[in-house]
Amino acid sequence: MSLRSRFDGKLWSSEELAAELDRLGPYGTSHVAFLIGGSHGLSDEVMLLVLTEQIYRVVKINRGEPYHK
User: Fold this and answer.
1) Which of 21, 34, 41, 49 is the most buried (most CB within 10 A)?
2) Which of 69, 68, 36 is nearest to 52 (CA)?
3) Quick one: CA dihedral 25, 47, 2, 66, positive or negative?
């Protein structure tokens, strides 16, 4: 799964999202919002599960731990 940047609509890989969230941390930017909407017929619940998995990957990447791709 990739997420789109709110600025330019570019798709972010897991590594790019991890870098962006890591960059925001030292500046006290503690509020990040993710908008979830059904895509290609997927329910909001499925999209929430996919987002949760993506956040898990981001945490693992930023800790330098391995994760399953």
Assistant:
1) 21
2) 36
3) positive
* Tally of CB atoms within 10 A around 54: 17
pTM: 0.70
The answer to whether residue 69 sits within a structural domain is no
Sign for the pseudo-dihedral over CA of 4, 5, 10, 16? negative
Q: What is the pLDDT of residues 20-63, one digit of tens each?
A: 888 887 776 667 777 776 566 777 788 888 889 989 999 999 99
For 63, the token pair is 């800790």
Residue 55 lies in a domain: yes
For residue 22, tell me if it sits in a domain. yes
